[in-house]
Amino acid sequence: MLNLFKKVVKKISGQDEPQKNLVDIFTEEKVSDYIGDKIASHETGGIWIKVQEIAEFHFLNVTIVGTQNIKTQNGITFDFIAKDKTYELNSDTKEIKSEPSTVSNQFVTQFSFDITEVDFDIMLTEGITIEVKSNKQTEEFIVIKE
Fold this sequence. Notes:
Number of domains: 2
Structural class: alpha+beta
Low-confidence stretches: 17-28
Strand order of the largest sheet: 6-5-10-11-1-2-3-9-8
Order of helices and strands: HHEEEEEEEEEHEE
Number of helices: 3
Distance between the termini: 62 Å
């Protein structure tokens, strides 16, 4: 009798398991709602940044939504590729692990850079693409020009 009731509920609701997608919906909201400015795009996501000042130090908090599942103890490298030059930033955060988003097959990765001694504005204005490198993985994003 209980199996028959479950089958009827499945047919009426159109879902195999009513609570199955609850976690996925939460993850998707997280994917599309970031604090900061979107500086680069990708067909499956982008890069959002927020500059934070602590004492006399400046940090660039970064959120990446992309296809790479990053898990590293060595940090991430950003290569801002311009016409004649490449600018490189190495993440301040060394231990980084992506969070999966099962509905959209994307991964969300958060980390920071110390940009106290760096002219980040020049990197952003001159850069055409950003290559995100971790271990042996590389993912390319296109810088958004305003």
